[in-house]
Design a protein that fits this description.
Elements: H1 11-24, H2 37-44, H3 48-60, E1 64-67, E2 73-76, H4 81-98, H5 103-124, H6 127-140, H7 147-163, H8 168-189, H9 195-210, H10 214-248
Antiparallel strand pairs: 1-2
Helix pairs in contact: 1-3, 2-3, 4-8, 5-8, 5-10, 6-7, 6-9, 7-8, 9-10
Length: 249
């Protein structure tokens, strides 16, 4: 592991990158203990505070964990897909908000990715996942359910559909599609959409998944996408008309 002391890049960032590269390359194995701060400081010819900052960076990325005591130190962590979901969702949410992604682009991406899961979800869905989706439908039918809570049940429903594919890599990749893009679409359409229609689409999805009908699941998602797109366009058009009227008044 080496760094370039003449590089303008922060030394602690270079050290963190060097250790990260060693983990990715398999030179440092899961649960392996890293050299001590003093040993790393000697190896990289930097101060211990610089090494400490590098280790903090790695810990923030869940690449290492620290243990106290005589047998303690810094160890290579076993990064799990579930633990990386939050980072994936946060990054996707920031990208969407900072780059002003349009409703249509988000909608297209989200449903294209989710439809890709349909064949696997129809083949592999479990009774437990169907139960989660049905539970969300029951919640969506509750009188007095707030818009925020309705949107939350919507996200939970579709996460269960994606997780039904039984593929942790797909679930990780689609976490951002469901938990970042769907709330964005909900923000635009929540005031105009019909909860009864959403429940209808969700019931169709559960029915096709239970029957292991992959084509039916894809068709149900396509119908939901069409409804969502049409509703989004109507909301945007109404807002545009209102803005024009206010400017003319």
């Amino acid at each position: 592991m080496k760094i370039d002391p003449d590089s303008p890049k922060d030394l602690s960032a270079q050290i963190a990158q060097a250790i990260r590269d060693s983990i990715v390359a398999g030179e440092l194995l899961v649960d392996q203990r890293l050299p001590s701060e003093a040993e790393l400081a000697d190896q990289f010819e930097v101060s211990r505070p610089t090494v400490r900052e590098a280790l903090k960076r790695l810990a923030a990325q869940s690449l290492i964990r620290t243990q106290r005591g005589a047998s303690g130190g810094a160890f290579v962590n076993r990064l799990r897909f579930e633990e990386a979901y939050d980072q994936q969702v946060t990054t996707a949410t920031l990208l969407l908000s900072m780059n002003a992604v349009s409703f249509d682009v988000a909608c297209e991406a989200r449903y294209a990715l989710e439809r890709a899961c349909a064949p696997l979800s129809a083949a592999r869905r479990t009774k437990e996942q169907l139960a989660i989706m049905r539970a969300q439908i029951r919640r969506q039918c509750e009188p007095g359910l707030s818009d925020e809570d309705f949107c939350a049940t919507d996200v939970t429903f579709h996460r269960a559909l994606v997780d039904a594919a039984g593929n942790p890599i797909l679930s990780y990749q689609l976490a951002s599609a469901v938990e970042a893009m769907q709330p964005l679409m909900n923000m635009i359409t929540f005031s105009a959409r019909s909860r009864e229609r959403i429940v209808f689409f969700h019931e169709n999805l559960v029915t096709t998944l239970e029957a292991r009908d992959a084509l039916g699941t894809e068709a149900a998602l396509a119908a939901l996408e069409t409804y969502t797109r049409d509703l989004g366009h109507a909301v945007v058009a109404a807002r545009s008309r209102k803005a024009t009227e206010q400017q003319s008044a």
